[in-house]
C-alpha cells in the first residue's frame, strides 16, 4: 500500500503513523532473534527483516555480484562497504526492484522478496535514498514526493506533512519549490523526507551525508537511531569509514562482486576496513614537496548569481579549501571561475591577465581548468564514450582538436592515459560514461583535468560518493599537482577532505566568502560552526 494522510495530517502506511510520535513497528511472529552489540543508549535485540542468499548478477563481460549472502535485522544499522565497482549498486538495485538477479533468493519479513519493479519494492516496505537523485527537475518538492505514493493525498495536506517532517528532522524544505532551483544538498533532503513518509521496514541509504555539515549529519544520525529504535532495518552505504565505525552495528564488505565478510566495524580501524575493501593496505597521503609560490589567481569583488562581492587570491603550489553548506553559491562560484557564467570586468585575473570577459574555452586555453560537482550531464555526457568525453575539455590543450579537425587516435590515447593513471575500472575508452560507477567516472573526470596540466584547477566535490581507495588517489593527485606548481581551489562539503588537503580555508555563507584562515589548527567543530551558523543549525533533533 502507498502512504495516506489521516485527519491530523499524519502519514499512515503499512507500519503505522510516521512522525514525531511514531510507535514501535510491530514485527511478524517467528524468525531467529539476532543479538547485536549495543550502541550507546540503544540495546539491539532484533528479528531478521531482510536476507539475501546466493545472489548473482552477470552483465556482458562483468560478474557484478557473485554468491552474495547477508542479512539485516530490525533495529540494525547495517553498513555495505566496497570499492566503486565492487557490486554495491547492483546489489541494492536488486533489493529495490530495479534489477532482477540471475540466481539466488531474497526474503523480506520472512516472505520471498522478488520485486518486479521499485513500486513493488516500495509496497513491500523497501525505501531508498539514491546517491544520484531520482527527481524530476520541472516538478516541485511536493509533486516529486507524490510520485512515490500509490494514492497520494490532497496536495495541500501532503505539503503540510512534508514541511512538518522535514522541519522535525532538521532538513527544512519548501514543498512548493521546483527541484531545478534546489542545490544538491536540498535535493538530497527531498529524497530523505520522501523515504521517511513511506514508513519503510527496510531503508537503504546511499551516501546520505555527502552534502551535510557535521551538525546536519548528527541530526540525520539521530533520525536514523530513532528509526532503528522503532524497528526499521537500515542498510547504510557510505565511504566515510569513521562514520560507519561510529554509527553502524555491522558491516558487510564486498570486493570484486563477492562478500569478503561481515564484521563489527567498531572492532576494526578505518585503515583495516579499507584494507578489507581493496585487498591491500591503504597508502598514506603525502603532503610533502609543496612550497607556495607567486600569485596565480586573483578574484576581486565578484558578484554573480548568488555570489556577493567574493574576493580571493591563490598562489602556485597552494590548495585553497572552500567549505559551505550546499546551496550557498558553490555552483555559482565554479561557474563564474570557469567562465560558464559571465563575470564583470576586472573580477578574475590569471597571472595578472584579466580573464573576466573570456568564456570557458579561452580560460581553458590559458590553463584555467575546472571539474564541476555534477558528473553526469555537466562534467561528462552519459551517452558519449570516454574517448569522446575527453574532447569536452581537453581538445585544444592536448592538441586533439586542431583547425576544427579531431584526432580520434590522439583522443583515444589520452583517454587511455587517464584510465591508466587514475585506475578507472572500465572495459576500455570506448565505454559510455554513463556505464561507469559513480566513483570511476569521478576518477576519469578529475584525471582528465589533472593530466591537462592546469595553471589553476577548481574542483567542486572532488570525492563525493567515491570509495576510500579512490578518494585517497584523487586527493593525492591534487596534492601532487600542487607540488608541481599549480594553484588549486577545492570546493567541498567534506570537512575531513578540506582539512587534509588545504593550506588555507574559507567559508562560503549565503554567497559571501569569509577571509581565509590557515587550515593548520582549525578543528572540524570550528569549521562546522562557521559553515552552519547562517543556516539554522540550532535546529535540534526532536525525539519521538
TrEMBL record:
Q: Name one Pfam family in it.
A: ABC_tran
Keyword ATP-binding attributed: yes
Against SMART domains, the record matches this protein to:
AAA
Q: Is rRNA-binding a UniProt keyword of this protein?
A: no
Q: Which GO terms describe its cellular component?
A: plasma membrane
Which compartments is it annotated to reside in?
Answer: Cell membrane
Q: How does it sit in the membrane?
A: Peripheral membrane protein
- Keywords of this protein's UniProt record, alphabetized? ATP-binding, Cell membrane, Membrane, Nucleotide-binding, Repeat, Sugar transport, Translocase, Transport
Which parts of the sequence belong to the ABC transporter domain?
A: 50-281, 282-535
| GO MF term list | ATP binding; ATP hydrolysis activity
Q: Which PANTHER family does the entry mention?
A: CARBOHYDRATE TRANSPORT ATP-BINDING PROTEIN MG119-RELATED, GUANOSINE IMPORT ATP-BINDING PROTEIN NUPO
Write down what this protein is called. ABC transporter
**Organism, scientific name:** Paracoccus yeei
Amino acid at each position: 500500500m502507498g502512504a495516506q494522510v489521516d485527519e491530523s495530517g499524519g502519514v499512515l502506511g503499512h507500519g503505522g503513523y510516521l512522525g514525531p510520535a511514531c510507535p514501535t513497528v510491530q514485527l511478524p511472529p517467528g524468525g531467529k532473534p539476532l543479538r547485536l552489540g549495543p550502541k550507546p543508549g540503544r540495546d539491539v535485540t532484533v528479528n531478521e527483516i531482510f536476507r539475501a542468499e546466493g545472489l548473482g548478477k552477470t552483465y556482458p563481460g562483468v560478474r557484478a555480484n557473485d554468491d552474495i549472502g547477508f542479512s539485516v535485522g530490525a533495529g540494525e544499522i547495517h553498513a555495505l562497504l566496497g570499492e566503486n565497482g565492487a557490486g554495491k549498486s547492483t546489489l541494492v538495485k536488486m533489493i529495490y526492484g530495479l534489477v532482477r538477479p540471475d540466481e539466488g533468493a531474497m526474503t523480506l519479513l520472512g516472505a520471498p522478496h522478488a520485486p518486479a519493479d521499485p513500486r513493488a519494492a516500495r509496497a513491500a516496505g523497501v525505501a531508498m535514498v539514491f546517491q544520484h537523485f531520482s527527481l524530476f527537475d520541472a516538478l516541485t518538492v511536493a509533486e516529486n514526493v507524490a510520485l512515490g505514493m500509490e494514492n497520494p493525498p490532497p496536495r495541500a495536506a501532503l505539503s503540510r506533512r512534508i514541511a512538518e517532517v522535514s522541519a522535525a528532522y532538521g532538513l527544512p524544505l519548501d514543498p512548493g519549490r521546483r527541484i531545478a532551483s534546489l542545490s544538491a544538498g536540498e535535493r538530497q533532503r527531498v529524497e530523505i523526507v520522501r523515504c521517511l513518509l513511506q514508513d519503510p521496514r527496510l531503508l537503504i541509504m546511499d551516501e546520505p551525508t555527502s552534502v551535510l555539515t557535521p551538525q546536519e549529519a548528527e541530526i540525520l544520525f539521530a533520525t536514523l537511531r530513532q528509526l532503528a529504535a522503532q524497528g526499521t532495518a537500515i542498510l547504510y552505504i557510505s565511504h566515510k569509514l569513521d562514520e560507519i565505525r561510529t554509527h553502524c552495528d555491522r558491516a558487510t564488505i564486498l570486493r570484486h562482486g563477492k562478500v569478503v565478510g561481515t564484521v563489527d566495524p567498531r572492532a576494526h580501524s578505518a585503515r583495516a576496513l579499507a584494507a578489507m575493501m581493496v585487498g591491500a593496505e591503504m597508502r598514506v597521503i603525502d603532503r610533502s614537496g609543496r612550497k607556495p609560490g607567486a600569485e596565480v589567481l586573483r578574484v576581486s569583488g565578484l558578484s554573480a548569481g548568488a555570489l556577493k562581492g567574493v574576493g580571493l587570491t591563490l598562489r602556485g603550489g597552494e590548495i585553497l579549501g572552500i567549505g559551505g553548506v550546499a546551496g550557498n553559491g558553490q555552483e555559482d562560484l565554479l561557474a563564474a571561475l570557469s567562465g560558464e557564467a559571465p563575470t564583470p570586468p576586472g573580477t578574475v585575473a590569471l597571472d595578472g591577465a584579466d580573464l573576466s570577459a573570456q568564456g570557458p574555452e579561452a580560460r581553458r586555453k590559458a590553463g584555467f581548468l575546472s571539474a564541476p560537482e555534477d558528473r553526469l550531464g555537466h562534467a561528462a555526457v552519459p551517452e558519449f564514450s570516454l574517448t569522446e568525453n575527453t574532447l569536452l575539455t581537453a581538445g585544444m590543450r592536448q592538441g586533439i582538436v586542431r583547425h576544427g579537425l579531431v584526432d580520434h587516435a590522439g583522443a583515444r590515447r589520452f583517454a587511455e592515459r587517464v584510465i591508466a593513471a587514475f585506475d578507472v575500472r572500465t572495459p576500455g575508452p570506448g565505454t559510455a560514461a554513463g556505464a561507469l560507477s559513480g566513483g570511476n567516472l569521478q576518477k576519469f573526470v578529475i584525471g582528465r583535468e589533472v593530466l591537462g596540466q592546469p595553471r589553476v584547477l577548481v574542483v567542486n566535490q572532488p570525492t563525493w560518493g567515491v570509495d576510500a581507495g579512490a578518494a585517497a588517489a584523487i586527493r593525492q593527485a591534487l596534492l601532487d599537482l600542487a607540488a608541481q606548481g599549480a594553484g588549486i581551489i577545492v570546493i567541498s562539503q567534506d570537512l575531513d577532505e578540506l582539512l587534509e588537503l588545504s593550506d588555507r580555508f574559507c567559508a562560503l555563507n549565503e554567497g559571501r566568502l569569509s577571509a581565509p584562515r590557515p587550515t593548520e589548527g582549525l578543528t572540524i567543530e570550528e569549521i562546522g560552526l562557521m559553515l552552519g551558523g547562517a543556516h539554522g543549525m540550532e535546529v535540534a533533533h526532536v525525539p519521538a
